[in-house]
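Entry 14. Ran structure prediction on the chain below.
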Amino acid sequence: MTQDAKFGGLEASVGHVFADKALLTEALTHSSHGGATYERLEFLGDRVLGMVVGNWLYRRFPAAPEGELSRRHTSMVRESSLVMVGERWGVADYILFGGGEARKDSIVADVVEAVLGAVWVDGGLEAVQAIIERDWAFLVDLKDEKDPKSRLQEWLQGHGFDLPTYEVIEENGPDHDKFFKVMVYTAKGACAGAGRSKHVASADAAHNMMKILEETGQN
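Output, structure tokens:
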């Protein structure tokens, strides 16, 4: 399999076919591998993500004060959120290492930003904005800096209930484009979530459960 063919699976997950394949290769290349590495594109992608998310939140919440927008922004661009998106894309399977390096969350997060930077260079604002508004959508309604699973766990503990449990109830699709459905079970009910990794699906389930708890005013 050629490198271009291998990366085709990632392009399908990201939702962008690169005209300049070298950009995607650079975005996936760790410093241990040699050659052009992802650092410069990561720098660009970090700024692109921040700008697009900021504009998105400004439009989505026209009455929100600056403090709320900042908290929402932080929750959407922090490392754990990038890792969840990276798992959705399956990006860890495509990173080019020199050998022996651990696939750390910090590296996955950096590469996600690098891929966004590469999409910006290759396809412009419209292309990268479409990707972000699709794959960060499950995070846009968070009101604080905690990920959904942590928020749900803390809510249950704070109200004297047992910790939630998660169960994968559906898994389908090819290896490069898996789709999962996960059910979260709590003392206050159960809720389903979906995503392209178990992590994303369970976070979506926790997020949906928290929305129910908040909207019904349960305490």
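The chain has two domains: 3-139, 148-215. Will compare against last week's run tomorrow.
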